[in-house]
Amino acid sequence: MRTRGWIGWLALAAGLTFLAGPAGAYDELEVEERALRVMDALLPSEIETRQKTMEEAEVSGWVHVVYEAQSDRGWIPVELFVREGADYTFMGKMYSLDPSRDADAKAEAAMDKRLPEQFERELLQSRDTPLEGVREYLYEVEVPQRGPQPVTAYVGEDFGVVGQLFGPDNANLTEAAEQKWAGSQVDWEELVKGLEPVFGPGDTEVKFAMFTDPDCPACQRAKGRIEALVEEHGDDLTGYLLWLPLDMHQHAKPKAEVLACTAPERQSALFDALEGTQPNSTEDVYTILENQEVTVPKPVRECVASGQGEERLERYKGFADRMQVHSVPSVYFDGRLFKGFPEQKVREALAGDS
Q1: Pairing mode, strands 237-243 and 206-212
Q2: How many CA atoms, within 13 angstroms, populate the side-chain half-sphere of residue 54?
Q3: What's the pLDDT at 144?
Q4: What is the topology classification, in CATH, of domain 188-350?
Q5: Which of 12, 59, 262, 283 fits a disulfide with 159 by CB distance 3.0 to 4.6 angstroms?
Q6: How is the chain split into domains, by residue range?
Q7: For residue 31, what pLDDT band results from cuts at 50, 70 and 90?
């Protein structure tokens, strides 16, 4: 489930100019199908989208497809550049660049074109990509009022793109670098300081922390998969829950306050008990639980009444802001931030294959 953050992310990565023109010598159906698959990978299914234009891009060999995505700010443009043959796709803004310049200079030129002059930036790393002749550049950009953001540029022989790259299987090839960047913003020990694990013994090599909203169905499903893993590897896996109620969920905050004050061994069961309920206050939460014959211990009520629950939520939100968490569940694991629970990677780590 994505938060309001996807709106700002698209606004930063996508272009704002609509282009129209006749279709070129490419397979329109093939390009459209590829573009739709990328849009499905980019946005939640509940976000309405519509295609605006399709035309040959200024850079030879690419097709420019413009969509709009519905948000509470209206329709936001999303620009895709699909390679003729429909194997690789960029989401973002593509620029025609001087082919005589070296790759580093092209990356700087693309960033200069895309970002306002006052946005300070630092190049963190560069590497080759699976797309032959294209190199990736990861920058940290200081965005006013939003703080540091990872921004990725790609350069080919005669073009530069600021945005994201998707492979033939629709995998987001930009994510790995940005996951590492997000993970580097917070130290693991700082993240879990003072917390007790909800899953596992706490002293294992394989451990994770999951940002979770009490009203997030995807978080519930992730918890179910985690509990299945704990059944298999209980002594080898440790997990923490960081409660992050989203503004879009008006009933989530009172639940999260109570959950943040609840003993770790009871949080999972309480999460289940509160699923689908609509409290407007922590007192409503207590009433809902009492109606289910779930006891709320006195220390929990005292913790909430003293403001400790709210303080813990603010602490978790501070970590989320630093790591640019824009969706839940988001999981800090192995020094990286993942959208969703990375079950396969956790299994590989448990098997000693990571």
Answers
A1: parallel
A2: 19
A3: 86
A4: Glutaredoxin (3.40.30)
A5: 59
A6: 5-184, 188-350
A7: very high
